[in-house]
Amino acid sequence: MSSDVAGSPLAPVVPDQPRSGDRTPPTPSSSEAPPRRRGAAAAWAGLKRFIRTEKLGAVSLALITVFVVMAVFAPLLAPYDPLQQFRRNLTEAPSGTFWLGTDDLGRDVLSRLIYGARSSMIVSVVTTVVSLVLGTLIGVTSGFLGKRKDMVIQRLMDAIQSVPPLVLLLFLAVVLTPSMSSTIIALTIVITPSFNRVARAETMRIREETYIEAARATGSSSLRTMVKHVLPNMAAPMMTMASLLFAGVIIAESALSFLGIGTPPPTPSWGGMLSSGARYVELAPWMIIAPGLILSVAVFAFNLLGDALRDFFDPRLQR
Amino acid sequence: MQADPAVRDPDRVADAGTPLLEARDLVKHYQIRKGVLGRPVGTVHAVDGISFAIPRGKTVGLVGESGSGKSTAARLVSRLIEPTSGEVRFDGQDVLAMRGKEVKALRRRMQMVFQDPFGSLNPRLTVGDIVGEPLEVHRVASGRARTDRVVEVLETVGLSGRDLHKFPHQFSGGQAQRIGIARALATNPDLIICDEAVSALDVSVQAQVLNLLKRLQRELGLSYLFIAHDLNVVRYMADELCVMYMGEIVERGDGDAVFADPQHPYTQMLLAAIPGHDPVTARAQERGVATGEVPSASAPPSGCRFHTRCPAVFDRCPTEHPPLYDAGQPGRVAACHLLDEPRQVQRA
Amino acid sequence: MIRYVLGRLVYGLVVLALVTVFVFVAITFIPSDAVDVMLADTGATEEQAAAMRSELGLDRPVWEQLGSFLGNAVQGDFGRSFYTDEPVVDLFLDRIPITLQLGGLALVIGTVLGLVLGIIAAVRRGTATDGAVRVTAVTFLSVPNFVLGLLILTALGLWFAWSPPFVYRGPTEDFVSWAQHMAIPAIALGTASMAGITRMTRSSLLENLGSQYIRTVRAKGAGERLVLFKHAMRNSVIAVLTLIGVDLATVLGGTVILEQMFSLPGTGQLVYQAVLDRDYPVVIACTIFYAGLFIVTMIIIDLLYAFIDPRIRAAREAGR
């Protein structure tokens, strides 16, 4: 990925010349170090810097915006009702009327694709956010407690991760009745250990920082130290991880739907569309190509974003 | 907030006679564990029975090579690390018997400044939040009052209210250390532990920060536990000096007196390393300079721990552990058998 | 070294035991049990259903079920299928060769292609070739394996009117048919690993080629090829090996969906069918078997590390 990354929040500090006695505010040597603002303003400034320094990251953000718009405004964007069956237009090739053709039940592929973004995005967003929170909580607590408790918690996480994800999802499909919330629960169980792993490693690293000892020396409680000092300093790797796992969740959700144990039909989902398309490979290839491509592009966008975030936050790539 | 420590808190027993902090026979041993079952296979003697006292408004210096246990000692008296045994009294209270809230209350009066100026500041917080944290933690002030107090201490250390919303990376090393000092000052403590507080700074900046610390001591009546490996720095700061070697205090006494006439060969060796420090250089040349590496802390040498490197080693050293012998002047002690021997042995 | 291996094995058993506990705790959340599903269309009475439950041991508390499962498992009995009454171990062992063939082929394809592409990209860094390889890698990292399988099938069907065999024949029985059958799913499964390994090889090689150590080797007058293959590569192999370990879980999971798509009668198909049939003993045992398979492979990879990197070996023999 591009390595021309300038000033980031983690920019290494070059101590300036011995002039600490003076009271004038230091003027940063490079133009890249705008005074950092707080809250929303800081987030906005960070976003602008990200777009400027990470070209591919900007592309991925644009793609992701398209998917989000598709998901949110599906009813406005879709030319037809995704469930409406045009009985006289079964498996019809793409045309002016049906831009991406129709499926075996005469439903408009484009409309189903747009609505499919909904289930995909809802499942992925909820799963990622819930797992991020859970995994961070578990990882930070485990890393902070250390010793025996850490050992027990981590072996449990190892256990979950030792079952291949799709097999675990299949197992959980037996346990839970098929529904969107079941899919989310199952995926959360599968993804959380990965967040835990990163959060724990980061906690172990941050715990050794002097500012943690300084906080203790000030009299800060463990909880306060965790919230004020540990969490903010692990935000960068967690965001990167979230983006990459988001891509994984999109794949897993569609795989489950493809196997008929994810989003239950007739609700349109990309995986479900692929599954019905698989029966008409030669007769109606558009039934496979359209959802296959859009699924891949969505995964691509989040992988790209993850890569860009990693570069953006990598102190070694700072100039 | 007032400057006079005596007026600050009427509840405190302002007994000028007792020292502010007293450490007696402090010990910290670490078990080295091995294997799945964690069998202890050895013990690291990080701090091995040290005693010292910090009088009110004074500075006690703790010197020694890295690994001598001086930083561990600092963390033991502030309960950042739990001692294996010993006793610590702060303003007459038993520090090691304190629990939760009492420890927190102790921290309010006993703050710390660290070696790495940037490392000790959370890079994601503003100066205002960093310096204001102790105020929040101890519920001293919040909101407007907190900001006012933060600006006040920032100005005390030579920064200004304009720095409130900046982040640590926007400062130079010396300025960052001033932020660390401001944080330590925020709750109006009685004792500040400076753990190599200037070692990471350039020499010219060191002088400025040291002068700041001296000024603060004069104005606020602070006491310091001042830890450093640089003897020139300690000499400038300390009223009383403790020299540590391998977890033990080997020499203690009035700062200037120790510098003028070091009694322990280890102190002599340290002083000889300072360019142009004549009284010792002469003696070191006469006797030869200590050589060799510091032995492992998990297997300290028998008898006097310094005997493996000591140029004046004789038969008692490897077998007999030296106590702190009286070294002539009042308040001066050194753990060297030479002080117990007739003069001719020393000259031999 | 032997103690280290033993330590790893004990750790593996602990994790496997935890998987078993997790599985048994999870099945208590099942809303309707297998008996309801089995007897749904038979019009059986409630008494018959209850009799069946007690026969299958489903009326006992979970920890009792777990206990008897573990007790039997130690003796090699992991339960029997509700439907065929065959021991699950036999069902699994009958089918595992196909899954291992598929997964193994996929990993070999992914690793070989990934290493080759990664080395090419690293050697020609900054050129168009490098760019092309990297774009290819990111692209393939993003196409889910079952989508890729479907797209390949579609392309072959449309352009060559060709489709893979429907009935599986082993490599010794009919090699050509076997190869035709395995090729597409193995490629579809392997490309994602290929993409990951390409990226890892490239970045790790570049890092190593710029290192002090390699500069020293170069200064000693070693040829560029020797530098690359003997010195830089050795360091990169560790990183790649780690990645293969990570990919393993994905590939094992991926076999489930691709076996289904290409009608390969492997363990993936076994689990999937059991899930659809709610054949609990099969699902439970297979989940644990998969975990075992994964754990064993991870231990092997761990030992390979020690084999490749003397520093790791030394550290471990010193007792961690």
Automatic annotation (TrEMBL), chain A:
<feature type="transmembrane region" description="Helical">
    <location>
        <begin position="121"/>
        <end position="145"/>
    </location>
</feature>
<feature type="transmembrane region" description="Helical">
    <location>
        <begin position="166"/>
        <end position="191"/>
    </location>
</feature>
<dbReference type="InterPro" id="IPR050366">
    <property type="entry name" value="BP-dependent_transpt_permease"/>
</dbReference>
<keyword id="KW-0812">Transmembrane</keyword>
<dbReference type="InterPro" id="IPR025966">
    <property type="entry name" value="OppC_N"/>
</dbReference>
<keyword id="KW-1133">Transmembrane helix</keyword>
<comment type="similarity">
    <text>Belongs to the binding-protein-dependent transport system permease family.</text>
</comment>
<dbReference type="GO" id="GO:0055085">
    <property type="term" value="P:transmembrane transport"/>
</dbReference>
<feature type="domain" description="ABC transmembrane type-1">
    <location>
        <begin position="117"/>
        <end position="306"/>
    </location>
</feature>
<dbReference type="Pfam" id="PF00528">
    <property type="entry name" value="BPD_transp_1"/>
</dbReference>
<feature type="transmembrane region" description="Helical">
    <location>
        <begin position="56"/>
        <end position="78"/>
    </location>
</feature>
<feature type="region of interest" description="Disordered">
    <location>
        <begin position="1"/>
        <end position="38"/>
    </location>
</feature>
<keyword id="KW-0813">Transport</keyword>
<feature type="transmembrane region" description="Helical">
    <location>
        <begin position="241"/>
        <end position="262"/>
    </location>
</feature>
<dbReference type="InterPro" id="IPR000515">
    <property type="entry name" value="MetI-like"/>
</dbReference>
<protein>
    <submittedName>
        <fullName>ABC transporter permease</fullName>
    </submittedName>
</protein>
<keyword id="KW-0472">Membrane</keyword>
<dbReference type="GO" id="GO:0005886">
    <property type="term" value="C:plasma membrane"/>
</dbReference>
<dbReference type="InterPro" id="IPR035906">
    <property type="entry name" value="MetI-like_sf"/>
</dbReference>
<feature type="transmembrane region" description="Helical">
    <location>
        <begin position="283"/>
        <end position="305"/>
    </location>
</feature>
<keyword id="KW-1003">Cell membrane</keyword>
<dbReference type="Pfam" id="PF12911">
    <property type="entry name" value="OppC_N"/>
</dbReference>
UniProtKB/TrEMBL annotation, chain C:
<feature type="transmembrane region" description="Helical">
    <location>
        <begin position="237"/>
        <end position="262"/>
    </location>
</feature>
<dbReference type="Pfam" id="PF19300">
    <property type="entry name" value="BPD_transp_1_N"/>
</dbReference>
<dbReference type="InterPro" id="IPR035906">
    <property type="entry name" value="MetI-like_sf"/>
</dbReference>
<feature type="domain" description="ABC transmembrane type-1">
    <location>
        <begin position="96"/>
        <end position="305"/>
    </location>
</feature>
<dbReference type="InterPro" id="IPR045621">
    <property type="entry name" value="BPD_transp_1_N"/>
</dbReference>
<keyword id="KW-0813">Transport</keyword>
<dbReference type="GO" id="GO:0005886">
    <property type="term" value="C:plasma membrane"/>
</dbReference>
<protein>
    <submittedName>
        <fullName>ABC transporter permease</fullName>
    </submittedName>
</protein>
<feature type="transmembrane region" description="Helical">
    <location>
        <begin position="135"/>
        <end position="162"/>
    </location>
</feature>
<feature type="transmembrane region" description="Helical">
    <location>
        <begin position="9"/>
        <end position="30"/>
    </location>
</feature>
<dbReference type="GO" id="GO:0055085">
    <property type="term" value="P:transmembrane transport"/>
</dbReference>
<comment type="similarity">
    <text>Belongs to the binding-protein-dependent transport system permease family.</text>
</comment>
<keyword id="KW-0812">Transmembrane</keyword>
<keyword id="KW-1133">Transmembrane helix</keyword>
<feature type="transmembrane region" description="Helical">
    <location>
        <begin position="98"/>
        <end position="123"/>
    </location>
</feature>
<feature type="transmembrane region" description="Helical">
    <location>
        <begin position="282"/>
        <end position="308"/>
    </location>
</feature>
<feature type="transmembrane region" description="Helical">
    <location>
        <begin position="182"/>
        <end position="201"/>
    </location>
</feature>
<keyword id="KW-1003">Cell membrane</keyword>
<keyword id="KW-0472">Membrane</keyword>
<dbReference type="Pfam" id="PF00528">
    <property type="entry name" value="BPD_transp_1"/>
</dbReference>
<dbReference type="InterPro" id="IPR000515">
    <property type="entry name" value="MetI-like"/>
</dbReference>
